[in-house]
Amino acid sequence: MWFLLLLLYIAHIELVYLQGDVNRLILRNKNGRNPCEGHIEIYHNGVQGYVGDKYWSNKTEEVVCRSTHCGSPESRDHSTDVLKPKGSKVWLNELKCEGNESQLWNCKNPGWGVSKCYRDTIKWIKCSNEINIMLEGYECAGMVKYSSVNERGYFCSNNWGNDQANRLCKNLGCGESKEIPKKEWMDFSQIKTSKMMMIDCSGLNETNLWQCAAQKEKQKCETPATVICTGFMRLQLKGDEASVCSGMLEKEEDGGWKPVDSSSKSTPDVWCKQMDCGTNVSNSFKGRTHHLECSDKVQVVLKDSRKISKCYGEVHIQVNGSDYPVCGSSWDLKTAGVVCKELKCGAVVDQYTRSGTQSGIMDNVECTGNESSLWHCRGKHNKNAFQCPKKAFVVCAESVKVRLADGPGRCAGRVEIEHEGKWKRVSSEKWEAVNSNIICNELDCGGARSGNSETFSEGSAEFLTKSVSCSSGASRIHECIKASTSSSRPENSMMITCEGHKVVFLNNTCSGMVGIQHGSKTYWLSGSNNTWNQESAHTVCKQMQCGDAYPYEYIPSADMKRNVWQESYNCYPNNTSLFDCKKNKTLPSDHNDSIAVVKCSGAISVNLTNGCWGTVNVCVGGKCGGVCKDSWTKEKSVMLCKDIGCGNKILSSSQKNEAVPIVRSLHTTTHTTNLSQCNFIKNDEYGPNVNFRCELASVICSDSVKARISASRHKCSGNVEVHYEGTWLPVCSDALKDQKTQNAICEEVNCGHAVKQLNYFGPTSKIKNDITQIQCSNSDIKSLTECDIVSEKHGDCPLAGLQCSNWSKMELKFDGACSGAVFAHSETGRNAVSIEGWTKTEMDKLCNNLECGNLKSNRTYVSDQEQSQTLPSQKQQKEQLWIECQDEPKVTLSKKCGGEVRMNNIRVCSSNWNLDYSHMVCQQQDCSNAINFTIKTTTITQDKSHHVSCEGYHHRLGQCSRYEDNCDGGLVSVFCVGSVKVNTTEKCGGVIQVNYINDKWEEVCHQTSNDHLNKLLCKELGCGDPRDKKPQKKQKSNRKKSKVTLETALNCTKDHKDIKYCVNRLRCDTEKPAEIYCEGYVDIIDKDKPQSTPVVPIILGVGFLLFLVILIVVFVRVYIAKKGKKSMNVPSRMFSRQEPDLEFDSGDYEDVTNKANEMEDFSRGRFRSEAEVIMESDARSTSSLPYDDIDEVVETLPLTSQASGGRYIHDGALDQSSGKF
């Protein structure tokens, strides 16, 4: 805040000062040459006047000379006094000066215009100073400098204007003022130690600038006054590229530059100094022009990262071997254009400034645009370096180039523009066709082809941050680069194919006829001996990445004469492309008679890393590697799968593999029948150390896909899995909904046709992907290789399985879960399995499949069951296979007939669990049925648990399919009928309670009356039959009952004979749980119980007795108070409050209760009367009374007592702290 106030204060002072002095004094003479000699003029409030000579003295002249910065007065001749104009004003007269006054009007005087002066002459004085005003810097341009006998300094730029500049230029013989530069265009560093003279010419008709010298205290000055007069001759040197301070001398004239002829009166040293080029070294005059060489060696260069760059970079000045950046304080397009022109770099494409802290020697540069060098533009040229807050940067047209990269020729590929020394990609966003045409024309490739371009590698270079937008009149791409940038992040590179694009191909891999495809047409290279030679053959093989050529060949063109390419080439060993070879100007006479044929030494192959799927693998030049995915197409995938015999369809790949490719892209022609015939763009074409990485292309051919039904214990029934990219993936149920898909899978695994879709049963897949889509077009498809399949990352899709018509499931009967006669279940029913043909290995496998361990023993079981025809080596007979496996699963509950289910001491998960499984467990535990609910505990555990799935023919939990895995849905607890207990809250009646879970008695939901249920319940209680009528109930409470939530019900049908089987889990909200009253129940009113004593009369009696005691105590205290009044001698304090007389009528209960204030005081250990003060001595005597005396006093009290008002009682009459009298 204080800083702002200071600024306001300074601004106010400055404003007042700029308004001009109210009073001014000057010395005026006719010629105006010496501002320190002449008659005195005074300006008062802007009005001119003179000074009278009454009381004039030498001290008066001392004040005048000092106030005009003219030194001291010299001896004067009175004859030099001059006449004053008639009728002129005399402002001051009768001056009496002491000689030390700062201004003449500070001398003692009568006032402004007060004293009359009738003399017609005025004093002429001469002061000692001789003032010289000049321009420092150049002839007729520079800083305004003054000098006198004892002082020299500069005029301040404050209040410096065109009038003053014009006056100075005229006085110096330099014409008029041409310009007053606003920026620091000269070295002002020397003024820091120089005196600065403020001027103020406002209101003056001055003839000399010294007359404007400020007569107030000096104001702060930042810069000196400067001017460029019309007489200033601006110079430059032109023609020497080694130094801008050497060459032909030119002067600016009429907006252009002309040679300086011999008529110039200046000297070479002055010229060199004016151009900041040091001193003259040599000077010659040739052909009416001066050729000048100055001592300084100065060059303008561009730098990028402190290295010399061509046509772009930070602008630097090299002076005598030292390098300095050009500061960018006033950097603009016109100034940047001078740099580009000077360096022969074309037009300006871009110019801006960069922040920096380096030291520079040139700033505030302003060019007209036609200078020969930046050094010759007007600007601050300092010998001593100073800090640059900003550095100038320029991009010239010759540094901007364009190319089509990663294409099979220079006329097709990804658009890249070299900008600021780096090749940068260009975004395809908002790209216009005119841009493509400009690029193709600049590359001499004709116009751009219409339609979509071929696909090339996206590349990895950074994107150009400038936008590219060409106008119809543009001829080169640098004219299209705009400063505006897109806010969105570029995603795709722009790719172009020009009309001039053509490629060489061979009709076989690394051998065959040499063809040229240009657009949609195909041509063949001439095999004429005059043009087709070994060097040309080598070039073709190198271009096709096929090594060197064997001896070249040719074949007659026959009927292909019209398709012979009408160009011939003369190739050299360093050529890598046929089109880089020198064209022959004329064609030989036999040009169309033969076609060039070549056989190369190299070989190329394209395959997949994993047979029929994997990363695309190209082997070329003895090395193998991948191809960039962004240049790969679906058509190339189809061609590759056919080439390697892996089917005609391709599937999408989820693989992402980033690495250094061996090939960035490969390009086909209309004659390509195998990918090995393509044009390959190898990665090492950009240098062996190029750190280029990309995501590699991968392909899945249809023949790599296989299906399976994964359940090991069943045949043709279980989870469906698809072998995809080398991994068996589960299948989402939506992908299996279509019947054609189901049948294709069953057919592929030789399981007949599909019967039904199954829920997935198995451990959670650890694989990241699922098969989410399978689409089979035809109903007669026999394999998934003909279907479209999609694999995606894990989602929320439920997985599924299939049961095919040839399904078969094994079961052991007549004994435990892992021992018994072997039966097979299939689509045709259940069949006994014959013992014929079974080996120990097969029986071991069966035990393992049934999760029963290894085989323990086997025997023959004589059966009259129908034998299965589906198992190995079975015949129609009645000898059935019986096996006993080593492991018999043990199923237990954590408590008798209830609790947590465990199998082999491992808990069971609730996933896939149902009530039938609960019944199976309870029956297996000899606990009858299960109650119709299952508790799923949510205990978090890292231990794995069993997940089970049972078939309808299973009778033991151990027979069911199972696996171990983490449990997310909760663990299973089952409660059986064998654990149920029933009771009532009273003997043979009351609220019904059931105990069947965790030894907890639960009340039962109230339901409609059911005679059968009531009979079963009373029977269970051993209380006979239910009562016909409900017993008399206890008196109901008026309190509203709140609802409670119950979770148990009794649901019995006429078929139930045991109430325990009626227990059901049912949630209800009720105010009254279910009740039952049987014949053995005894009513409450019949019970011989003593009557309870009435409570209300007792409470009233005790209250009345307590009131009487309080009343007696009050009478006693009133009596004592009256007694104290009678014995009082001196009143000490009087209360202002008076209370009415107190009356007590015997036997009047209401009157007594109205004296609540008296009882309150008593309860607090004190009482009140009308005069509430007792003498301290009386209080002590009163309080010393024994309790017996108090009783006597109470006995003598009358039934009525009247207290008189207006009494005084001494402080401390009552000792309230002790509570005694």
UniProtKB/TrEMBL annotation:
Q: Which PROSITE patterns match?
A: SRCR_2
What is the disulfide pattern of this chain? 97-107, 367-377, 470-480, 571-581, 950-960, 1052-1062
Per the record, membrane topology reads: Single-pass membrane protein
Q: Report the principal subcellular site.
A: membrane
Compartment annotation: Membrane
Task: Cite the SMART domains for this sequence.
Answer: SR
Pfam families, alphabetically? Answer: SRCR
> One biological process GO term for this chain?
zymogen activation
Q: Which domain of life is it from?
A: Eukaryota
SRCR domain sequence ranges: 27-128, 131-230, 300-397, 402-511, 503-601, 598-702, 707-805, 908-977, 974-1079
GO MF annotation terms: serine-type endopeptidase activity
Q: Which ranges form a coiled coil? A: none
Keywords annotated in UniProt:
Disulfide bond, Glycoprotein, Membrane, Repeat, Signal, Transmembrane, Transmembrane helix
Checking PANTHER family in the record gives:
SCAVENGER RECEPTOR CYSTEINE-RICH TYPE 1 PROTEIN M160-LIKE ISOFORM X1 (PTHR48071:SF25), SRCR DOMAIN-CONTAINING PROTEIN (PTHR48071)
Per its record, how is this protein called by name? SRCR domain-containing protein
